[in-house]
Amino acid sequence: MTDVNEPGTASPEKIPAGRRPETEAVGVVGEAGSERPVAGSGDTPADSGGTPPDGGGLTDRHGGGRQLLRAFVHNLWAANTVTVTVLAIVLATLIGAVLIVVSDPDVLATWGYFTAQPSDALNASWTVVSEAYANLFKGAVVDPAAVQAWANGTGGWQPVFAPISETLTYTAPLVFTGLAVSLAFRGGLFNIGAQGQATIGVILAALAGFLLPLPPVVHLIVAVLAGALGGAIWGFVPGFLKARTGAHEVITTIMLNYVAISFLAWIIVQDGVHDPDRTDAISRPVDGSAQLPRLLGSDLRVHLGIVLAVAATWAVGWLLNRSTFGFELRAVGANPDAARTAGISVGRTYALVMVIAGALSGLGGANMVLGSTATALTPLVIAQIGFDGILVALLGRVKPWGVALAALLFGALQAGGNRMQSYASISLELVTVLQALIVIFIAAPALVKAIFGLRAARAARLSTSMAKGW
Amino acid sequence: MEPGEIHALLGENGAGKSTLMNVLYGLLQPDEGEVLVDGRPLNAKGPGDAIAAGIGMVHQHFMLVPVFTVAENVMLGAEQVRGGIAGFLDRRRARRQVTEVSSRYNLRVDPDAVVEDLPVGVQQRVEILKALTRDVDLLILDEPTAVLTPQETEELLGIMRSLKESGKSIVFITHKLKEVKAIADRITVIRRGRTVGTASPSASEDELAALMVGRTVNLTVEKAAAAPGEPVLEVAGLVVDDERSVRAVDGVDLTVRAGEVLGIAGVQGNGQTELIEALMGLRPVLGGTVSLAGQRIDGWPTKRVLRAGVGYVPEDRSVDGLVKEFSVAENLVLDIYDRPPFGSGLVLRPDAITASARERIPEFDVRTPSAEAAVGTLSGGNQQKVIIAREMSRPLKLFVAAQPTRGVDVGSIEFIHRRIIHERDIGTAVLLVSSELDEVIGLADRIAVMYRGRIIGMVGPDTPREEIGLLMAGITDAEQPGITDAEQIDAEQTGAADGSGAGSAATPDGPATPAPDVAGSEDNNP
């Protein structure tokens, strides 16, 4: 790795000798760079994005196609973000396969006489695992049978897009909560309260949805904004407490989660909110005028929420990297002392970050009641989107587009899991386990590195630069 | 390295001194070559191996647990246990060990003091103690004096001498020439990862400096006489507390005029930090007034003070000065990011930020791979130049610099000093706080000496060092001819700073008798 650092640290006087290969390397850097967004992380500036092009440029000093290929493979097998993520998913699927086998008593029985007749065990295991994952795929991406039916004219186009539609429906709220956690994290705050913020968001959005008699478009806008407002209020409280009293946001947000969830349970059964025709805990349904319009007709559940989610991703990306507030936020997040010394108001930034993060969570909550998954408040209306948002943020490396992709993966697992459960009789909980395993492997990159023998690209650079100190 | 030798490793920032020592201590693995200890190759996979081979290291940034006591820190990693498998910590034995080792080498430390309450110099003593209790033969001191006051430095040099006499070898990494000459038996100079020469301590400072940076360096600051103008900064009766609500600044009056450098000398921890932070609006002013060009600025938020034309180089660059994860370009606009052309309203203009960085990087001689490189990857001197560049590229009325050259290599010191004098010459008032007496004397047109939160003397730059040294020790009347009672002054200083007893100094039962040695060195250097 020492050679990687060389062009950087090379003194200006040395340049004549080193210049030439370096200019050649620039071309490679460009190419390597253009590969990366396709590979999955569009928003990887400083940390991971910097390393591989460097390395690529150097291994490729002498140019040539084969060299280029080698440089690409070299980078691919370095422990960069994309590689680790992909390998984490692979590892999680492998462990998931073991769990599928173990949890099926019939298949497990065949392993009992493995030494006598190994083919039984292997065949049975292969069948159950492949069926499970095939259904996961068919439920999340596309079902080849539906494509064939459409091509033959025996089926409509809707079944072809149904899996994608489901995936996107589950993705949208996770994008919002994932962004909420990420944004706070970049500002140096660990927002565990996305769940609570989304809960208050869903309450206000639903109330606005069935209490306010407004014309169609206005009603929807008001309901969505009400959701954002609810989340913002719930985010402001811990932000303000942190700024004023130094109360730790992890504690306050967790506590506010409980308050929000209990508040939801309470408000559902109040007069004017509770559905008079029902005896169970469910509120009145949201008016049609306040519902997010479906994008692909009434048969498919995908709705405007996913468009809003993409817009929110772009907005958060802009806010972080191209706005003065984003600069303050990142400075405070990375070094509050230096930010304060440079005249940035740390407390104000904390409060604002939490307000925006809360608003994002609130939008995620609004999605859950104004979209197609539910139209009325129930105690479980928002499921776990707040807590899943933390996982999504970690998987997305707290970068906006990374979060969007991570939410897409989680949404796909959710949608595919539903089909897997009904077609292959594999419990939906397997999906939860897969999600958890992926995040565990992401959180322990050293483990992935060790298992696959990756070069420690970034870590090595980090330690050399740390040692360079004096 | 020979036993009982002090070997100085001299080199500019980024020359590779620390990297070499980290290899020795097993923190990094060599790519090529090997290290021989007693003729056998050392293959240290981690600090544990190095300690086993008799190598101890005191890092520049201390590796201590702040909330533990001295004894607990010393035993950390080699805990004394009793009660068999139950494994109770034997704190009493650890205490005894600390007391024993500290008296053997005359390292006065209270084993029960909590580390975070101790001044930096004493914390360093704890680090040395920690290494010594592991029975090391070779002690590596990485820039040990970078964080010390002159007095603490003197004490450290005394300690090093006594260690040497008891047969320990010491590798002393530094870029302070004076200390090298004072203590080293042999000097190896490193430049850009190569040994460029070995010198004896008799070589002159200029020779060593030239060897270090590869060219001759101008160590004295050249400047014309100051032409002071109107008062810019006026401080009257300023009272400030530190974070423990202990009075740190106790009624300070100061005036800094346009076009002059006012230097504040003093042993660290006498209120200089708090004084400056109060000026910058980083610490509440409890009494008195601060005026900038006739306008009251006390109580203003930091941003407003900066906007009013105050440039500020904070004392601790890695904590207060820079966001290490940010690029050089972003750090260059850390306090003007929301001003045109870099930003207006909510919109930030990264292009303008990069463009301005491209201009300022060569102007301020910042050695960085690119404007986008994270500032944390630069060497200390270049990090400091980033701060200087940031603060000096807007129109200033007042420039406040705290320890502007701490932990900075000779080449960068020269550059920074020139920029400060340049700033003075274009009519800015400069307030300089430094614990390097040489720096204050070299740069300042007037010197205020601070002691226990007060200005106890205001002298000219031609005042003899000894006189300023006495003032720094809190002795205002020049009755005492020289330092006859070094022990007493010493005790007073440490007493004032840490409150820990100086009693153990009286019982030198080790092979060395360092007490007179320390006193002797105090005579040489005020």
Automatic annotation (TrEMBL), chain A:
Residues of the region (Disordered) are 1-62
* Coiled-coil ranges per UniProt: none
Record keyword Transmembrane present: yes
The keyword 4Fe-4S is annotated on this UniProt entry: no
The places in or outside the cell where this protein is found are: Cell membrane
Q: State the Pfam families in the record.
A: BPD_transp_2 (PF02653)
**Compositionally biased spans, kind Low complexity:** 42-51
Keywords assigned: Cell membrane, Membrane, Transmembrane, Transmembrane helix
Its chief place of residence is membrane
Organism superkingdom: Bacteria
Q: What's this protein's name?
A: ABC transporter permease
From TrEMBL, chain B:
Q: Which PROSITE patterns match?
A: ABC_TRANSPORTER_1 (PS00211), ABC_TRANSPORTER_2 (PS50893)
For this protein, the record's InterPro entries field holds:
AAA+_ATPase, ABC_carbohydrate_import_ATPase, ABC_transporter-like_ATP-bd, ABC_transporter-like_CS, P-loop_NTPase
Low complexity compositional bias: what residue ranges? 494-519
Segments carrying the region annotation (Disordered) are 481-526
ABC transporter domain span: 1-217, 233-477
Enumerate the UniProt keywords alphabetically. ATP-binding, Nucleotide-binding
The superkingdom of the source organism is: Bacteria
Matching Pfam families, A to Z? ABC_tran
User: Gene3D superfamilies this protein is in?
Assistant: P-loop containing nucleotide triphosphate hydrolases
Protein name as catalogued: ABC transporter
Where does this protein come from, organism-wise?
Answer: Plantactinospora endophytica
For this protein's source organism, the top of the classification is: Bacteria, Bacillati, Actinomycetota, Actinomycetes, Micromonosporales
